Structure prediction request, 252 residues.
Amino acid sequence: MTVLITGGAGFIGSHVTEALLQRGEQVVCVDNFNDYYSPARKRRNVAPFLEQPGYTLYEADIRDAAAMERIFAAHHPEKVIHIAAMAGVRYSIERAPLYVDVNVRGTVNLLEAARKHGTRHFVFASTSSVYGRAKEVPFREDMPTDQPLAPYPATKKACEALGYAYHNLFGLSFVALRFFSVYGPRGRPDMMPYLVTERVFSGETITLYEGGQMHRDWTYIDDIVPGVMAAVDAELGYEVINLCLLYTSDAA
Prediction:
């Protein structure tokens, strides 16, 4: 099976790529190695894959519709895992045009290429940030997500809606996975686990937001990857899934 993965040189993408190769899939990786954080980190992520049979790397931008068309025409992937995006809620606040351009237009380019070239199944990396200020926990997939608090989650919500349109019109199976703050080896250097650890080791001051009273759930990468792989295998029509760990208590 040929699987095309976007953002395959990044944190989550490189771990998913490794899992795909380990089970013998043909992997087509698309990544533009942008400088949101060090491109050298991403090149180190993919270095172990470059000589592996069944791995093809394209340094390309998902906003380039012609490039996406050429890649799909060359490989005709049966399935797509779309992880590439401009990430980060706070960084998106004053950069809405960039986030719409990359996240929405780039996703439409991929959906169009998938439609034209017979891709059966599309797995989309969404975010728990679409829930906004929801008070009820744990979050459920049927809760309202129509009041995003920043451009980043707004673009992810838009892509979920576009996925439904392509499912409805063209029969594309589409699964949106809402990630909950993933951490682990190869993690992004702009995220809290890396920033806090780095400052502890260097003796620098740690910045506390909201007076240090902020609460957040984190999901380890080794728990995320099996969920992504299960979503790749499950052609569910159209589905939105919270991908996280749910802890319950036996206490009465």
Observations:
- The chain has eight helices and nine strands.
